Amino acid sequence: PISGLDYIVDIAVDGAGNIFAVEDKEGVIIKIPPNGGTPTTFKSGLYAPFGVATDNGNNLYVSDSGNNGVIVFSSGGADSIRIGSGFSFPDGLSVDKAGNVFVADDYNGAVKEIIPTGGYYTSPALPAGLNFDSNTGIINGTPTTATPATTYTITGYNAAGGTTRSEERRVGKEC
Questions:
Q1: How many CB atoms lie within 10 A of CB 45?
Q2: What strands, in cross-sheet order, belong to the sheet with 90-95?
Q3: What is the pTM of this model?
Q4: Phi, psi of 102, deg, nearest 5
């Protein structure tokens, strides 16, 4: 067990076994590695976050209740987009296998479904030196470290739903 955390209101576990804990008072998401490693701050600066969930691509969904929105963070945490609208204190949320997001819209007394309609996500996170634009799906930059061949999955969403493409690429400087 991990102790010493305050005001934890929700948790989610991704496919890699990382635990994400929502700490409401400070507006942060804490990432706890598999097997109880040292917790780190995954994201900060949220205003009254309450719900958290992950999808099949290990993207993290957070209900940012104080800002009446839902934010999706890419698996590496570098990219984020806001999805859905018209919320009044979104609370708990869940993601189904198709990538549809269900949100408890507390002050509107409703459960709303969000079908992602635009944006790209990559999993796992890209190596240092490469940047991923979640609006266009374009990767640019120059790798600064050597990396093994890795399968990167890019998921793109539009009005019809999501689709993924996986490719194995050596990304990084050769040793």
A1: 9
A2: 90-95, 101-105, 110-114
A3: 0.68
A4: -115, 130
Q: Read off the tokens for 63.
A: 């209900």
Read off the pLDDT of residues 128-167 as tens digits, 9 standing for 90 and up: 788 777 677 778 888 887 877 777 767 776 554 455 554 4
Retrieve residue 90's tokens.
């979104």
In tens, the pLDDT along 55-100 reads 877 889 999 998 898 988 877 776 777 887 889 999 999 988 877 8
Q: Which two tokens stand for residue 34?
A: 């598999």
